[in-house]
Amino acid sequence: MLFKEVIHAIRPHLMKDAEVPSFMRNLIQMLCDIPEDEWYTKRDPSSEESYKDGSLRKFYTSKPTKKLAGKMLSRLTRDNFIESIHDPNRSDIVLDGLAEDITPFAEGVTKDNVGEKLFDLLKRGLEELIDPSLENTRREQEARYKSAQLKGQYGSGLLDDCSNTCSMPGCSHHLQKFADDGRSTPDYEVLIINEKKTPSFSNICAVCHDCFEQYILKHTAHERKELETAKELQIEARKARSTISDVNIDKGIRMVVESLINLKPNTLTSLNYEPTFIANKIDENENIFLAETVKNNVTKYFFYINQIMQNLSRQKQYSDELVRVEIKTICQRLEDKGLSQTAIYESISKQIHRITKQNMIYCDIVVCYFIQSCEVFHDFTK
Ligand SMILES: [Zn+2]
Fold this sequence. Notes:
This protein is mostly helical. It folds into three domains: 2-130, no CATH class; 134-244, no CATH class; 253-372, no CATH class. Helices cover 62% and strands 4% of the residues. It contains 16 helices and four strands. Strand 1 and strand 2 (184-186) form a beta hairpin. It is elongated. Zinc ion is lined by residues 166, 168, 171, 173, 207-208, 210-211.
């Protein structure tokens, strides 16, 4: 609520030591010329003084009544308010502080115009108390304005982080518009995940227009948490990309992946024992899905891939040793960055995908091979 947010922001500057009731009484008197007796809706017969103070406190912690807001709007005293703010006894330091603290709510506030700006803000705040739909419109406008600004600063990186797909969990909207002639244009908004924090890189993400609007108007703490988690994963993946972007995997790896694509099922010989290494390298209590995936792929494809690699090496089409060193280096770097095992697995798989341009499903199988053959992950039981 604008009115409440603004009066909470200005109180430390205007009447620092005064109790809330005196602050509110003073503020209302600056804003309008309605006699105090008309401010309150009903009287408490026991003690008029404590009743009035109680009401003023409520106006501060919650909001003035709709009735009072309406009356105030019809009898605002703009000049009086601005004069009181720019009272000759008020120091420049106070005016500067005041200007700084209402900057989040209005543009271009300086110590010279802070009286006017503040009056306009409070007036808008009162209008919103009477017609709450105005508040939604304002919040949407503000969010769009900030989105446009943030696009300029972070836009393309954010789109890259979410692979051009809305960052909101549960939404799969594409964030580009395609024209018939093959041209594409970005089509998205930048959303501030936690409004109470600064809109820095870790607190913003790219989303589609629908999710943007819905989130701006209303979201639960749970929804915010979910979006925060999605953002954390994006940051982790970005970290992984930048960590390994300069380590190349020899392009011979393509031959290995391609041989998987041409694999005939009847040529497979499965391992006839549990791949024991895996149990020591992936903690099943923490990563059950990863452990199972690796176990299955290793059991099915380890022998086959091993054979392919040996054959290709003999034919000098694949430098076995080199690739192992490269994969090991990548894994080590990602581990040094503190990435989770799942993130490391995915990053290496994606790196293989970038080289081979083949489906991720084959790249995953190759990563599983390297886990079993010890290039990826180390024994955590030792
Ligand atoms: Zn969406």
